[in-house]
Specification:
Elements lengths: L1 H5 L5 H9 L3 H22 L5 E3 L1 E4 L5 E14 L4 E5 L6 E2 L4 E6 L12 H17 L6 H22 L6 E2 L5 E2 L4 H7 L4 E5 L4 E4 L1 E2 L23 E2 L5 E2 L4 E16 L2 H7 L4 E6 L4 E12 L2 E8 L11 E6 L5 E6 L4 E9 L3 E4 L2 E7 L5 E5 L2 E6 L15 E6 L8 E3 L6 E3 L3 E9 L6 E4 L2 E4 L3 E4 L12 E3 L13
Antiparallel strand pairs: 1-32, 2-19, 3-14, 3-18, 4-6, 4-13, 5-10, 6-9, 7-8, 10-14, 11-12, 14-17, 15-16, 15-18, 16-17, 19-31, 20-25, 20-28, 21-22, 22-23, 22-26, 24-25, 26-27, 28-29, 30-31
Helix pairs in contact: 4-5
Length: 483
């Protein structure tokens, strides 16, 4: 009897354990496998919602260009030979008959000169500015800067060893720049011939063979910066009669020429003025704009009547055309949806406990006040603005359709007028998902392109910066729980 019991068949679990080696580890692995399989199926069968964080700014970045500066300028040559001493600062304005430089037969013996602290500071600032703006694609600018820096140091050293022309005072106490030869000899040391400017203008001690070039004479190859070369004219050597000494810019009016693509021509063709931001110093100013043809290609011509002294030493200028001036909240076009609202005349609205709402008429003198959100209000076109004061202009209120049912009656408790709800209209908006579910937010579009729209920041029940909205709004319904 006991032998029969000992030979009794094992139970189902025991037999299953013998077949598959069932234990706690196997059970846990099985549960995890089922969970992962279910999650994978759910992932591939569920619609994925993309989120977009609302940003603030223009619709797109303004385009940048490199412009060729054309101005009225001419080269001035030495009338005689000699060693030169500079008196006019480069890039500064000078009046007609002002002293630009002096020539003497002998070179002024000069001890090693040290620069003043403010001059050293200027040299360091120039070097730092060049370093920050350096581009390896425009390596030729290194040589121009080298000559400019060398000339500036030479000019600083010489100005420390010579006296600039001071103003003298006449008997009436008025300042004047005397032309008396004896006084001039006292002002400018040594046996010098003082060379004066023949006209008002801006002095440059460099040349680049663009002097005297007009807009009509510009050719396409003039825009090639790789072949551009600027020659520094400042020297400590003896100059000969006829040598180029300096350039003078004699007119504040100047032009910038920029190459344009067909797309840019189409975008700018209707403009007569344009705002320009100079990337060198982030200054902006307006200029007259026109489109011209050079060697068969289109170029933009921007004419200015001021600001030249800031860029007198630059033949090529990097600029930004400020054409995208509409600023607001930037959202994708794919986020925009439309939603139906009941439209109700503002005269049916009432206020209770400082809350705006409507009085619902339920029959037999029974009424109920309903506080509702008004998403938008527009002027009631059925009432002429001439017939009422602007402050009392009737409005049409847009109310969420979930607040009422079609056919509900509203009553004006003051006049007894009744209004049956039924008329609808649509508003544009997006689905905001800050709280994990989709909530409609109204938008007012200010500008748009093929991908994005700029909407107002001050819309009632609208968006704010850093809100999260649904990018692919066609895959979502309002109040869907997304996470």
């Amino acid at each position: 009897m006991s032998d029969n019991k000992s030979k009794k068949m094992p139970g189902i679990l025991a037999r299953l354990r013998m077949v598959v080696g069932l234990n706690i580890g196997t059970i846990m692995f099985g549960i995890l496998f089922i969970y992962m399989a279910f999650s994978a199926i759910l992932y591939f069968t569920t619609t994925h919602i993309e989120s977009y964080q609302v940003t603030s700014g223009p619709l797109s970045r303004n385009e940048t260009y490199t412009g060729l500066a054309i101005r009225e300028e001419s080269l001035c040559k030495a009338d005689s030979s000699g060693y030169i001493t500079y008196y006019a600062r480069e890039g500064s304005k000078i009046n007609a008959s002002g002293a630009v430089y002096g020539l003497s037969d002998t070179k002024t013996a000069s001890a090693p000169a040290s620069l003043a602290p403010e001059e050293l500071s200027k040299v360091r600032t120039d070097m730092m500015s060049f370093s920050k703006g350096f581009s390896s694609s425009k390596f030729n600018s290194t040589y121009s800067f080298k000559y400019e820096l060398k000339g500036n140091i030479l000019q600083y050293a010489e100005s420390g060893n010579t006296s600039s022309a001071p103003l003298t005072s006449d008997e009436d106490g008025e300042e004047n720049d005397s032309g008396d030869n004896d006084k001039t000899a006292d002002i400018y040391p040594g046996n010098q011939t003082i060379c004066q400017s023949q006209s008002d203008g801006i002095i440059l001690y460099s040349m680049d063979n663009y002097e005297g070039k007009t807009v009509d004479a510009v050719k396409a190859e003039d825009f090639d910066q790789n072949s551009y070369h600027e020659t520094d004219l400042k020297t400590s050597d003896k100059v000969k009669a006829g040598d180029d000494i300096y350039t003078i810019i004699t007119d504040e009016r100047w032009s910038l020429l920029i190459p344009l693509s067909d797309r840019q021509v189409e975008k700018l063709k209707d403009r007569s003025t344009i705002r320009v931001k100079f990337l060198k110093d982030d200054m902006t100013q307006n200029g007259d704009f026109s489109i011209i043809t050079i060697d068969g290609d289109k170029y933009g011509q921007i004419d200015f009547n001021k600001g030249l002294i800031r860029y007198a030493s630059d033949r090529f200028l990097d600029i930004e055309l400020v054409t995208n001036t509409v600023v607001g909240l930037k959202i994708p076009l794919t986020s925009i949806v439309t939603k139906d609202f009941y439209v109700i005349p503002s005269r049916m609205a009432t206020t209770q406990d400082n809350q705006t709402g409507f009085t619902l008429y339920e029959g037999k003198n029974k009424t109920t006040f309903k506080n509702v959100s008004i998403y938008a209000s527009i002027d009631d076109s059925s009432v002429s603005k001439l017939a009422v004061d602007e402050a009392e202009q009737p409005q049409i209120y847009y109310v969420d359709k979930s607040s009422f049912k079609e056919g509900d009656a509203l009553i004006n408790t003051d006049t007894g007028e009744k209004y049956v709800i039924g008329e609808t209209d649509t508003l544009e908006g997006v689905y905001c998902i800050n709280k994990g579910y989709a909530v409609f937010r109204r938008i007012e579009i200010l500008d748009e392109n093929e991908e994005y729209a700029i909407v107002s920041k001050n819309t009632t029940y609208g968006l704010s910066r850093y809100d999260h909205i649904v990018r692919n709004a066609d895959k979502v319904k309002e109040e869907d729980i997304l996470y």
